[in-house]
Amino acid sequence: MPKTILSNLNLSIPSGQVVGIIGPNGAGKTSLLNILQGRIKPSSGDVKVLGQALGNMSLQERAQCIAYVSQHPPHVFDLTVLDVVKFGRLPHIQMFAFGQQDAQQDLVKKALHRFHLEDIKDRSFDALSGGEQQRAYLAQAMVQDACILLMDEPINHLDIKHQLELLSQLRDLPQDVILTLHDLNLAASYCDHLILMKNGQVVAQGTPREVLTTNLIQSTYGIDVTFHPACQHVDDLVGGKGDLSSESVPFMSYHQKAPKHD
Prior knowledge:
The chain is α/β, with parallel strands linked by helices. The chain has ten helices and ten strands. A six-stranded mixed beta sheet has the order 4-5-6-1-7-8, sandwiched between helices. A two-stranded antiparallel sheet has the order 2-3. Helix 6 links the parallel strand 5 and strand 6 (about 175-180). The radius of gyration is 20 Å and the shape is globular.
């Protein structure tokens, strides 16, 4: 009997924003991304991207519209970093399309620069650290030049400096960005809109202040949470999103729920 992974989904994801999908392990975050990019077909209903039904798009049309960075990318064998990044242009390559080479090279150069890959572009991809490989895949997604960028745990394997740098860079991209995250503090600081999931269902969605409430965090994660007033170093961190505003969420710490005693 088929297993239901997600149920009763009714989402309208805003454009022009960084959208974070959060929730405990097994909540359905990655499955939702797979539906949004067309790798999983919903058993009922449909998915529309920019008003067009995803199921009616060809594979090339999807790739031109949606870029996806997986949490577990496929093995690329013995390729250089530059080769991996260039693969992002494949959906746009047309036979006998002369005159496009300069524009494509410019996109690749910008991506290598943005993700600090210029000095290692000729190295074997297999020789890179996990964080360097992740940055190469992010550069590949950038040169794909799609209007929507889906990312599954993009800050995995990155140290804290590169985590903050990447999330700040995502806010500067012209694409709509939808990503899964586990760190609620980073989600609050860098996402405009949050989708909170549990057991294959959307529990809440809205601004970080609307979603990251004590009750919702406790009921979704089964933990207690303490909100801390913003201080100077928090202002600096949230600076990736802009000035600390009324929509910002104070930083929070978590701890296991205290056992109940009779």
